[in-house]
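Q&A FORM
Asked by: J.P.
Topic: structure of Protein-export membrane protein SecG

PROVIDED:
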Amino acid sequence: MSFLMTVILVVQMLSALAMIGLILVQHGKGADMGAAFGSGGSGSLFGATGGANFLSRTTSVLAAVFFVCTLLLAYLGNNRPAASTGSVLEGAAVTAPAPAAPAVDNSTASQIPGNAPAAPAK
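REPLIED BY: S.T.
REPLY: Here is the structure written out as tokens.
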């Protein structure tokens, strides 16, 4: 499960970085007004309108990939086994270790009569 989440996270990061780059390359709506009067309209890479269509469609595909990856990560991150229906504290109480038994004192001082260790207070 961890490998799958890592792959989805890498795809999400790459799509986010590609979206950021594509959005920064695109022209705003006000840039078309300057091109209408002849400034910089002929020097585009994709032609007059081909670049806008290609960049906007690629951005929308990357946005869809990013959104699907986000939903998958949220689902996989929140996916829990069906057996754990109680609270976190109830699960911790069940799995808590048992208290350790008192240690037996085998020293020579405890073997002398009258030097028995005191019983632990309860």
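FOLLOW-UP: The first helix runs from residue 2 to 25.
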